[in-house]
């Protein structure tokens, strides 16, 4: 789907985006929003070149909650996650992102990662030529250490069994587990999962669901993007639906599972 629009970036747009690290502290005290959401995004807009993709998305997530971010192919789900992780593409021109009272919108990707936002992309990015354990150790090297290796193995027994196997030789499901485990090896507050169930058998999907549940019990907050909306809703507390880069629904996950009209209109399930 092509939703390219050549709307010009508003003049005030980039005022607080792309500021330096030094500016971050000032932003924190200056414009901290009211309300007590653990994580919130407010009216974010983002572009790939001239293509206007994320068109004013706002959402809130409470601490320890799992939020499903749903929508058809091309709705802008991955782009929204990338904007939250502060990757350069799509370029966020307007809007605010707040994590535990800290302004994330002025940050670069490495700063957002240090602040505890960990994106597990769809392609999983396992490092070739390294074992499972080396992949995990490498994630611990970055500042802000997360779970210890032994703690990870308790939650991911399959990875423990394969600790000396090269990461890219794992099955698809095991690679997904490794990708999630690597995120946990860093200092994590918000886990962003982009299509974690893609290409996986139902039994493996259930295993990953159990892992995400146990991560939730440890107090970690998650946003999950999934084409398998039923599986994502089963796991989630609340859900939002994106369509053509705009939010069209916010509500409880169980309630959306029962809403045939919304499901047919936006999720094709
Ligand atoms: N690098 C890019 N350059 C230009 N346009 C892009 C780029 N990446 C994505 N788009 C466009 O942005 C829109 C939203 O894409 P996005 O990948 O965010 O959708 P999505 O909801 O994640 O879809 P899917 O369910 O297929 O993963 C689409 O129209 C897509 O073609
Ligand atoms: Mg996507």
Automatic annotation (TrEMBL):
Keywords: Amino-acid transport, ATP-binding, Nucleotide-binding, Transport. The keyword ATP-binding applies. GO terms for molecular function: ATP binding; ATP hydrolysis activity; branched-chain amino acid transmembrane transporter activity. InterPro entries: AAA+_ATPase (IPR003593), ABC_transporter-like_ATP-bd (IPR003439), ABC_transporter-like_CS (IPR017871), BCAA_Transport_ATP-bd_LivF (IPR052156), P-loop_NTPase (IPR027417). PROSITE patterns: ABC_TRANSPORTER_1 (PS00211), ABC_TRANSPORTER_2 (PS50893). It comes from Pararhodobacter oceanensis. SMART domains: AAA (SM00382). GO terms for biological process: L-amino acid transport. It holds the Pfam family ABC_tran. The keyword Transport applies. Belongs to the ABC transporter superfamily. Residues 39-269 form the ABC transporter domain. This is ABC transporter ATP-binding protein.
């Amino acid at each position: 789907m092509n939703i390219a629009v050549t709307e010009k970036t508003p003049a005030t747009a980039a005022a607080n985006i792309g500021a330096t690290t030094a500016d971050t502290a000032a932003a924190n005290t200056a414009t901290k929003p009211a309300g007590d959401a653990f994580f919130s995004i407010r009216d974010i807009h983002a572009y790939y070149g001239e293509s206007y993709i994320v068109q004013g998305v706002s959402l809130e997530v409470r601490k320890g909650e799992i939020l499903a971010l749903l929508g058809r192919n091309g709705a802008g789900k991955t782009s929204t996650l990338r904007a939250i992780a502060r990757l350069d593409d799509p370029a966020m021109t307007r809007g605010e992102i707040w994590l535990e009272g800290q302004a994330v919108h002025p940050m670069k990707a490495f700063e957002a990662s240090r602040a505890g936002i960990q994106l597990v992309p769809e392609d999983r990015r396992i490092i070739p030529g390294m074992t499972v354990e080396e992949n995990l150790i490498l994630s611990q090297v970055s500042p802000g250490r997360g779970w210890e290796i032994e703690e990870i193995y308790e939650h991911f027994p399959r990875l423990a069994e394969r600790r000396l196997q090269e990461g890219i030789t794992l099955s698809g499901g095991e690679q997904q587990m490794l990708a999630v485990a690597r995120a946990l090896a860093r200092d994590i507050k918000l886990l962003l999962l982009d299509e974690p169930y893609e290409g996986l058998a139902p039994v493996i999907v259930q295993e990953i669901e159990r892992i995400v549940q146990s991560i939730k019990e440890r107090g970690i907050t998650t946003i999950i993007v999934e084409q398998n909306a039923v599986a994502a809703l089963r796991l989630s507390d609340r859900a939002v639906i994106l369509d053509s880069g705009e939010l069209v629904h916010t509500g409880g996950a169980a309630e959306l599972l029962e809403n045939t009209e919304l499901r047919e209109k936006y999720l094709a399930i």
